[in-house]
Amino acid sequence: MKRPTQVRAIAWAAAFAPALLLGWRALDDGLGANPVEEMTHFTGIWALRMLVACLSVTPLRRLGLVLLAPARRILGLAACGWATVHISIYLALDLGFDFGFVLEDIVERPYITVGFSAWLVLMTLALTSTRGWQRRLGRRWVRLHRAVYPAAILAALHFIWLVKADLREPAFYAGMVAVLLGARVVAQLRARSPRAAAQTAT
Fold first, then answer.
1. Which residues 6+ apart lie within 8 Å of 28 measured at CB?
2. Where in the chain does DSSP place strands (E)?
3. 3-class SS string, 86-135
4. What confidence tier does 196 reach under pLDDT thresholds 50, 70, 90?
5. In whole numbers, what is the pLDDT of the chain averaged over residues?
6. What's the domain count of the chain?
7. 57 is in which domain, residue-wise?
8. Closest listed residue to residue 82, CA positions, set 116, 48, 106, 129
9. How many of the other CB atoms lie within 10 Å of CB of 25?
10. Torsion sign (Cα): 150, 155, 161, 163
11. Helix (H, G, I), strand (E, B) or coil at 78
């Protein structure tokens, strides 16, 4: 088995592993007194974890782990998938598809607004992640998919806003997003430096 195939297989396994864990907990009566709330939290946190893992691929590639490149798209799709499950549980089990309440929540609760915005961005990126869309959009595709960083910021902000007591967990993920965004900014500044331009010219 070639390395890219192995990396893709591991990435897909990582994307689906939380589903097995959630299923096991449900069968083992491990979702606590409020299973809907627990499932909502579980799917949301795994969406954020997949998103952080997706963003981690690029700086790790710059450090020499080029073989991780095929995992980035899979982890991004996994982040969107878990975010979709997260919002579906909220719509179906929490609100019973009462879209009047949905609109009211989006307007009146900032953390819902921010989370819904993050999901819309991730869904847009997932739908345009194919090679066909890459060909159609050309250079604009790269600019569009940089929106994954604002989506990560919105997702982290959603988590911080949602938690009212112990902020250690959301602060950890917000810190991870900040570090990865900082790494992106540093890489761009280095690429624009006179030395980098001179090396490119030669």
1. none
2. none
3. HHHHHHHHHCCCCHHHHHHHHHHCHHHHHHHHHHHHHHHHHHCCCHHHHH
4. low
5. 89
6. 1
7. 3-201
8. 48
9. 16
10. negative
11. helix
